[in-house]
Amino acid sequence: MVDAPRSTAAVPMPQVTRWDVVLPDEMAAGRLAMDLAAMLQSGDLVALTGDLGAGKSTLARAIIRELAQDPDLDVPSPTFTLLQSYELPRHNVVHADLYRLGDSSELEELGWYDLTDSAVTLVEWPERAGEVLQQPNRLEVGVTIPPEAPETRRHVRLTGHGRLAGALLRMRTIRALIDSAGFGPAHRRHLQGDASSRTYERLVGTQRNAVLMNAPRRPDGPPVRDGRPYSAIAHLAEDVKPFVALARGLKARGLSAPLIYAANLDAGLLIMEDLGDEGVLAEAGAGAPPAPVMERYEVAIDVLAALHRLDLPDRLAVSPEIDYQLPRYDIAALLIEVELLIDWYLPHREAPPLSPEGRAAFRQLWADALAPSLAQKPVWVLRDYHSPNLMWLPGREGLARIGLLDFQDAVMGPAAYDVASLTQDARVDVPEEMELALLGRYIRASRQANPAFDMRAFAASYAVMGAQRATKILGIFARLNYRDGKPGYLRHIPRIWTYLQRCLAFTDLAPLRTWFEAHVPPPDRPLPARPAAPPPMAPDDATSPDTNDAPNAPPAS
Question: Which intervals of the chain are annotated as region Disordered (predicted)?
């Protein structure tokens, strides 16, 4: 076997791609509309050409309904209004029919540029606008009726330019995988994704559903330390091979990771088991946020206790020809993660910047605190073991009732990390008494399995790993606000701060607690949603763990 290689190069993209498609009937036309809707992003332009009656309007309407995820959406013809706009959950959409356009200068009078800015724009009769619509990212869709063909048959020539050249190639690859897996007739439904470049769809079939993970290979970012990019130092997955390896490893041990139905490893595409929509939280009612369900959290902690008592290998099979080596959660990875606090959270709180000597002192304090945990026997650290990535499967027995999602960034490391990830959930309040009850349950199970289990060492590791995780997440959520324009994550910061204080109260962490008290402002006063200036020393790092927001989809974390 060979090890799965780490991808480091940018994926080359063509400038122009063409694809000729024959649609024998309305069902095939509907599948094409589904595929196009899944491919399109804000800012894309689709130019539909063809004779009267060829089906341009029918295809445009089908695409809009797919983008709306509403098959009954009223989509009136823009023949007389020229433009019709829609505010849909994922994109704003503009549908234009320029047949009656006298001159391209009329577009400005119609408010074209304001309406189509950052929208998906579908244009019939685009030739009426001349060169105005020759934008870099566009898809040309030519619909014709083949001579002497059945009445329902259509020929469609798709020509992608710019971003849509590569997107069209990927669309074709996705359709081939869906068909080969036996889900060709399935309806594609977008699922809320996470903060990474991965996207997810539910394939709704007549006999069963599946989930499509679309995770294109991403190149490493710029070097940030010792010539290495952030993603390499933090051991973040570059492709889907780690997910496949861990999914198979977890299932082999009786746990409910998704079954992989079909895969295109080179393209970063997986079709896998759908673990449903039921998570480990319950609606509290009366407008209150969701709350942890004790029974489900107990099974989740039992999963960790059972997994951690096993002798877990650091090498897993991806396929008969390819192995994957789990990286160690080493001191370099743990330190670059906590430094996100310095690079993003401190500027967010308008704290004075640290000097190089101050940063070095911060790193040394953490290195000293983390050393005992790194000396312990390593286990699989799934790294995002919290409510968004845990599903409840009441039809299964025992530990299999917990469905596991989002483990592609797994590493070999301290057992306490995932325990802290669960009991100090970043997105939901875990009451302190519930946290302590779950910890007690884990410790009892561990001692029963191994009478030599060192409870004091585990408690110390739990405190430091919980503090490390909370420190990292403070930086990540501030970064998601500033760099990625996602201020919604800021609402979780007070919760993370509370968890951090619980962990820093542990006696062994007194030096770190003193440093935080001196340098890190608590989140107790309002600030603008986005800082006025970029934070210092902010690398363009890849998406870190703990940024997932996908309760219904595998990562759907």
Answer: 521-557
